From TrEMBL:
Protein keywords: Nucleus
UniProt similarity note: Belongs to the BUD31 (G10) family.
UniProt-listed GO biological process terms: mRNA splicing, via spliceosome
Record InterPro entries: BUD31
Cellular component GO terms held in the UniProt record: spliceosomal complex
PANTHER family: PROTEIN BUD31 HOMOLOG, PROTEIN BUD31-RELATED
Keyword S-adenosyl-L-methionine: no
One Pfam family linked to the record: BUD31
Location in the cell: Nucleus
Identification of the protein by name: G10 protein
Length: 147
């Protein structure tokens, strides 16, 4: 008879109890958004709040580790391993020009009509006067650096 293996989660590192309430609150908001009715919304609008909360969770951990230096490297890596934040998005935030990136879809050139980045990546001073910008993919109002 084959041996049954069970999943064992590693014990959370020191400091987890300080950030856990915030992460659980954001996760609960994410569940509430997922269960909201979608009547009267355009198809892309249904996922915009999910992208926003996903961004908030990742930005929260990024700021705690890189900006404020309040959590350890071990705790930060634990959160990434447990999928509390998006490692690929955080990696983009470390690069120059992407510090305020809203989501990874906005920099994927294959998803756009003309093989360029999203309209929300264009700085506001390069747009026509009074033109409102809204990303179709994530609902961002403009995340280009230098605004």
């Amino acid at each position: 008879m084959p041996k049954i293996t069970t999943q064992r989660t590693k014990k959370a590192p020191k400091g987890w109890e300080l950030i856990e309430p915030t992460l659980l609150e954001l996760k609960q908001k994410l569940r509430d958004v997922e269960n909201e009715p979608i009547e009267g919304k355009r198809k892309p609008e249904t996922v915009w709040p999910i992208f926003k909360l996903h961004h908030q969770m990742s930005r929260y951990l990024f700021d705690l580790h890189y900006k404020k230096k309040e959590i350890s490297r071990e705790l930060y890596e634990y959160c990434l391993r447990e999928k509390w934040a998006d490692a690929a998005l955080i990696a983009k935030w470390k690069k120059s020009g992407f510090e305020r990136l809203c989501c990874l879809q906005c920099v994927q050139k294959g998803d756009s009509n003309f093989g360029k980045g999203c309209i929300c990546r264009v700085p506001k001073d390069h747009l026509e006067e009074g033109k409102k910008v809204e990303c179709v993919k994530c609902g961002c109002k403009g995340c280009a650096s230098g605004d």
